[in-house]
Protein 1
Amino acid sequence: MTARSAERLRVGVDLVAVADVAASVLHFGDRYVRRLFTPHEIDCCRRPARTGDGSVPYSMESLAARFAAKEAVIKVLRPTDGQPDWRSIEVHRLAGGWCEIRLSGRAAVLAGDAGIDDFSVSLTHEAGAAAAVVVARCRVIERTSTEEGDG
Amino acid sequence: MTVNETIRQVVADHGRLAVPIESLADGDDLFAAGMTSHASINVMLALEDAFDFEFPEKMLKKSTFESVASISAGVAELAGT
């Protein structure tokens, strides 16, 4: 038996209706936002409050895109015994405006177990829908039998 | 309202099912009946409002919310009954 390290790719994609997220924010308020998103994500989705005009303090498109990204990451992680807390998957916006995935808690454990050491994410929203695509690189150990066999 | 009736009302109000809740048995798969992952979050939050508790991370499984029966089991576990 011989073993060698190999690389595999996993892809996850998700599509979210922005209106669904907006309805949840309106119904459940900050509890919905705080339950799903990290403080960094909430800050990124905030927009200037305009008192008295009934506007909500978040960009619904940005929240929806981030939720889509979390779902796409879960599809990449492929948990078999319960999914990680949504806040353990963070869409972290970098100074240049690009985003990366940062994991903590159980999501990080799942990624480690799968041999995933790198994620790439792309977010978009248009015409009432938000979407995210996540690509992950997995390092796996492949075992193959030698010609002579090993037993 | 019984626990079962409350759960059914919450699922009807927030689950975005493609069929009436009355047409589903307690063991029927709610995701197969049209409930999306995002809608299941709304169901979870509405259940927390209805029963005044919070689902811990260990119960944030698709299986917890996949049927009225599985939700009932989760509610019973959190209520300590």
Protein 2
Amino acid sequence: MKNSKFIIGGLFILAAVVYLIASSTQASAEYFMTIEEVREQEAEIVGKSLRISGAVLGDSINYDPDTLTITFTVAHVTGDNDEIESSGGLAKVLHDAVREEGTPRLDIVYNGPMPDLLQNEAQAIMTGHIKADGIFYADELLLKCPTKYEEAVPEQSEG
Amino acid sequence: MLPSLGYGILVITLLVTVYSVAAAIYGETKKSAEMVESARRAMLLALPLITIASAILIYLLVNDRYDVEYVWSVTNRSMPMYLKITAWWGGQPGSLLFWSWLLSTFTSAVTLRKWDRDRELLPWVLVVTGVTLAFFISLNVFFENPFKLIPAGISVPLDGRGLNPLLRHPGMIIHPPAQYLGFVAFTIPFAFAIAALITGRTDDRWIRITRRWTLWAWLFLSLGLVLGMRWAYDVLGWGGYWGWDPVEIAALMPWLTGTAFLHSVMIQEKRGMLKHWNMILIILTFDLVIFGTFLTRSGVLSSVHAFAQSEIGPLFFLFITFTFITSIVLVFYRWVDLKSETEMKSMLSREALFLLNNLLFLSILVVSFWGVMFPLISELFTGSKVTVGPPFYERATGPLWGALMLLMGIAPLSAWGHSTIKTLGRSIWKPAVAALIAPIWALIAGITNWIALIGFTLVALVITVSVREFWRSAQARSKRSGENFFNELRKLIKRNRRRYGGYIIHISMVLMGIGIIGIELFQSDTQQHLGIGDQIELAGYTVQYDRLDQFRHEDGRFITRGEMSLSKDGKDLGTLAPRYDLYPDGQPMTIPAVRSTLVDDVYIILVNWEGITAESTPFKVYHNPLVKWVWIGGYVFIAGIIIAAWRDEEEERI
């Protein structure tokens, strides 16, 4: 009998933690999708919180300094790390995605200062949602340029 | 020739370490004192060997030896001397070597100091630390050789690639070593715990021996976290200090279990309870430390801390699995010996509240772990990858942190063994009433956010309870002895360092809490393009753009620097100069300008984009209320833990 109050107390804490995790997950879950998946399911996912990644098309970058509005287009890259590795690394995958005409693309609108790394063939990781107009409105924009710090051997000294 | 020598020494160190482990196991099982002594000497030899290897690496770094791949990858000619030295831990192979060097230093310190006294446990401590050391050195020897030369056929580069600019900061001297010290030092209490399990000395001897080790380990782990926060705030230029980045979480997780461990060992010492629990906590802490090192080193996650992809990831995974399973098997093997000596009776007793504290820390751990693993779990079950961001962690851990604060306010007033609502109520009502001053004051100041009001009440409760503990005890002693109050206070702290150091640490935590409440709930920002003479208004402040300078620094950086004058209600508050440095290799760095007071910070960044002109320069201004209290709490914390961990004058009773 003496133990029962501890067991009840323990269960109470457990329930509270499960509730916190479940409700917070639900409130802030973001769906990882590739550009291709977004294009395929466009109609069903309007308004859903998404996290997507794609290769930036340098020519498409447009920045309006007065309203701090950036628009650009990203091309589909695979979300599978093994596939990226086997096709020659992230830098190559991004490069190919930008060059090939046939890859699915998506227009992005982002409000904010121009990020340093927003440039051609950068990997853009964005959170936001897609509206009925088929444009992705990003709340958050992270950029990676894989070429910069991952060369295995010094290229400039080759030869 | 030096690089080959360095590599050769690493190979020898690995052999010596493996020998030491084998000799210690053989010596202990066959009762051969000679073999055990030989194992100890081998381990003591490992330290000078790794030190020489590290010295060679530093020599190569400092002397611009770009024929060595590691040197080429983390330094260049323009870097100042201190950064060339700290490049020791600036990349993967070097930081693994640094890990080994620290572990070897700690192991030597342990085996040198009290060998005869702890003769029973130490051979097995040697085995555990030796296996860990061998693992890390073999990573260097087989996969990540810091002495690897640039492949033949490629001419030696004239200059290095240089350290990632984000790491070119004085913080580099202290943040990584502090984090690593904390990580590595937790190996020692873990090793003692395993030794206790193997030898069957399952009383609290291993805990008493490692008590101060654990505190120092915890100090450095905490310091690493705080310094990392400060560095992020000063350098990364996004207006905050904690982003729930996976690597931050990886460093937080062993801190959570370590903190729980620090508390629960006290119950084992005082009441002989929770012995299984303590074993599991230290095992978890150790494996989370390895996991943390793995996450920062393996490149599986992308963040400011991650280096390039590498093949050592699976090995870390194997090592974690191996140590975890072996340890847990040992705990089951000794399960009966680890039975509690007393039973927990009252739910409000000190030990029950400590247990609750442990459960809360573990809950935060579970939340964090869930957040990191959730994408993988959901992908496994639903096929679609779902992730959770900072809002998840804030929402799910917020109430748990709050409950911990409440406990810090209540637990010091409850008694060991037995407490009731009545006894507890009697001692808590006065500080609780006094604590109400905080929310009333906040309401008068116009704060109506109820989370903030609860938070401030809890902060005030913890401070009044803790301060009152000091005051009451010192006052009573001073009355009895007739001596000066402050003398008695000093003696009091000296007599029970852990307890009073602990109260100071509690106070420091809630001081940090003030800053966290401030920035989490009341941060505001604005971003605008300004021409010279234009102004931005934010939270009552006026920022005026006065001047723009653009020039090339002698080390090749192209610097853009804005000058802003800050004022409030017409009163001039000085000049702020946010900067934007573009390194020759195209890597940019945003350096914020901050005016920091106890009330709030004004934090300005220059958001560069090509074609910046005096007529149109993009700025982002953050108003971060109360954030300075995070750093103040940090200083108080260090003071508290030094008090708690300082060596007692009389020899420890072990």
